[in-house]
Amino acid sequence: MNALEELNSVLGPHKLIAAKLSYGNPSTEERKTMNAILYPDHTTEEYAALCEMLDFEYYEGYGSQELYGTLWLEDGSWATRAEYDGCEWWEFHDKPELPVRPEYMEGK
Known about the structure:
Layout: H1 3-11, E1 16-24, E2 33-38, H2 44-53, E3 67-73, E4 78-84, E5 87-93
Antiparallel strand pairs: 1-2, 1-3, 3-4, 4-5
């Protein structure tokens, strides 16, 4: 799996405002590692640098997890890297709705 292609596919229509990502594969000879942070006030150049860093192949199937992180999206939702028994994917979380006071409580 190409990490950049996966990110673009997962984001779809969502706009990425920030990201904190890491990659580590201690089971390979190269022992590749990558840490990246994209801040909310990022520039176009910083976003391009993140994309360049993510343009690599990794194995997302069963085994040990390789890609970790959190993505913050413009609509207030976010995605985290999930894993089960080494199989990994992005898992989206909606911003929880605030509780609304029942009408009978208003004015008290």
